[in-house]
Structures are given as structure tokens and as C-alpha cells.
Design brief:
This protein has 289 residues and is mostly helical. The protein has 13 helices and two strands; from the N terminus they run E-E-H-H-H-H-H-H-H-H-H-H-H-H-H. A two-stranded antiparallel ribbon has the order 1-2. Strand 1 and strand 2 form a beta hairpin. Helix 4 runs antiparallel to helix 9 (202-215) and helix 11 (238-251) crosses helix 12 (257-281).
């Protein structure tokens, strides 16, 4: 099409109309652009490093908090669950070592979920100004939590040595269950982070639900404490199989692969659902964050 515009000498000239480009947010379900995420891996590294520095900046104990929190929780659980609740009678290893392994796995999960849930709101200053794959923000929280996890793992090694608990060849499968815990946490965390952008009060609800979730997971008690007929149903809770397998890797216990398989399947469903919902609504984050 063409339009008529006046020229400098008063005559009318015909010139082509310039095309108009409309930019609007896309809707519907969208898959994850893995190529784009990989291209932005350096940004992911900087997000992780930023969170690590912010977490320990202007703190009295610094990285010691990553060690003290699971240790203090272990002492409380040992007194109330191990001695008063007689949970120590259900395990074959020293109860402090047993419960610390469960706390270690749970703390990794809970830390990722907690920080991922508030990650988009806390990063509003960059979400609303700069374009990049928004999925990198909750993903970065996993890297930060893994730093704390490695510090706590060193404490566990000292604890096992002190009680004379030796690892077995099961230790070779430890990365599998760490990956499973991270996968579960990212599934929950990405879903919650997208929801909290629109519904801020959900952050309080998620914190409360996460605390309750710990008590319905085998942190303070073994998976064998659940009646055999209910274990597969119980394993729909993905952290049930993850904690059980994580503990078996470190303490040399037998793997309950049927429950572990159900938990991995449940974790995969949660991850896919969380990421797909995140991708569906992420184009609107900059407008409402």
C-alpha cells in the first residue's frame, strides 16, 4: 500500500507506507528452549555467585550457618524423636547419623524451594528491565543451595567417622539421588515462583506446607516404619524415595527400588508441570512483578 505525503515544494508525492510491527506476549503452553538456556549459562553462573555473596554478606557466622542449622536440627530430633519417641529402636545405625542424613537431604530440598519461591519477586529490578530466560532465576537457587549442601556433607563425613560408620559401594549412586532431590525441588520451586508473582500471600502458605511436608517424609524415621501395603502410595511423595535412597547411599542400607521408582516418576511429573506452567505465564512477569 502507498500513502500521499506533501513534498517540500508543496506538491504531493507518493511513498510506500512503512510496515508496523506489533509486539505482544505470546500465550498457551510452550516448551523449554534448552538452546537458549545453554547460551545463557554464563548468566546463570553470575546469578548463583550473586546469591552466594548476598546470603553471607553482613552475617556474623557467614557460611557456618550452613553447618549449624542441620546440626542443631539433628540434636533436637535425636532428643525428641530418637530418645523420647524411641525412633532409634527402628534403625541399625547410630540415630544421630541416621537422622542427620535425612536432615541433609531435606535441607537441600527445602532450601531450593524456599529461595526459588521468592526468587522472581526478589529479582523484580532485573525482570522488569532486561530480557533473558526467566527460568534462570529459580534455577540459580539450586546452585546456591548445593554450596551449603557440600559444606554440610563434610560435617556428615566427620560424624560418620566419629561413630565408626563406614560407607559402602552404594556411595557411587549418591549423585543420582542428589540430582533427584534437586529435580523435585526445582519442580516445586518453579511452580511456586510463578504463582507467587501473582499471589504474594502464597509465599506464607508454601513455607507452612514445606514444614509439614518434612514430617510426612522419612527424615526422622525409616521408610520401613510405613506399613508395607502403604509404601508405594506413600512413595508418591517424591521426597520419600529420595531421602530413602540418599540414606542408603551413605549408610550402606538396601535400596527399596520400588518406592524409589515411584518417587522418581512423581518428581518427573512435578518438574514437567512446574516448568510448563512457568513457561506459560513468564511473559507476563515483567508487567506484574
Amino acid at each position: 500500500m502507498s500513502s500521499v505525503e506533501p513534498s517540500n515544494d508543496g506538491t504531493k508525492s507518493t511513498s510506500p507506507r512503512k510496515p508496523v510491527t506489533r509486539i505482544k506476549a505470546g500465550g498457551g503452553w510452550r516448551s523449554v528452549n534448552v538452546v537458549q538456556l545453554w547460551a545463557c549459562r554464563e548468566l546463570l553462573y553470575h546469578l548463583i555467585w550473586r546469591d552466594v555473596k548476598v546470603r553471607y554478606k553482613q552475617t556474623v557466622l557467614g557460611a557456618s550457618w550452613a553447618i549449624l542449622q542441620p546440626l542443631m536440627t539433628m540434636l533436637v530430633f535425636t532428643i525428641f524423636f530418637g530418645r523420647m519417641g524411641r525412633m532409634s529402636d527402628l534403625v541399625d545405625v547410630p540415630y544421630p547419623v541416621f537422622v542427620y542424613t535425612g536432615i541433609l537431604a531435606w535441607t537441600l530440598f527445602a532450601s531450593i524451594v524456599s529461595h526459588a519461591t521468592s526468587s522472581l519477586v526478589n529479582s523484580a529490578h532485573i525482570v522488569s528491565k532486561v530480557y533473558f530466560p526467566r527460568l534462570l532465576i529459580p534455577l540459580g537457587t539450586a546452585g546456591t543451595a548445593l554450596v551449603d549442601f557440600l559444606l554440610s556433607l563434610l560435617v556428615l563425613a566427620c560424624l560418620m567417622a566419629g561413630y565408626g560408620v563406614l560407607p559402602s559401594l552404594n556411595l557411587l549412586l549418591l549423585p543420582l539421588f542428589v540430582a533427584g532431590i534437586v529435580m523435585t525441588a526445582l519442580g516445586v520451586g518453579t511452580l511456586c515462583s510463578a504463582l507467587v508473582v501473582s499471589y504474594r500471600d502464597l509465599g506464607i502458605v508454601i513455607t507452612f506446607v514445606t514444614q509439614l511436608w518434612m514430617f510426612v517424609s522419612p527424615v526422622a524415621y525409616p521408610l520401613d516404619a510405613v506399613p508395607a501395603g502403604w509404601r508405594l502410595i506413600y512413595a508418591i511423595n517424591p521426597m520419600a524415595g529420595m531421602i530413602s535412597g540418599f540414606r542408603s547411599c551413605l549408610l550402606g542400607e538396601a535400596f527399596q527400588w520400588d518406592c524409589i521408582g515411584v518417587s522418581f516418576l512423581s518428581a518427573a511429573v512435578i518438574l514437567v508441570a512446574g516448568v510448563l506452567y512457568f513457561r506459560r505465564v513468564e511473559n507476563y512477569f515483567a508487567d506484574i512483578v
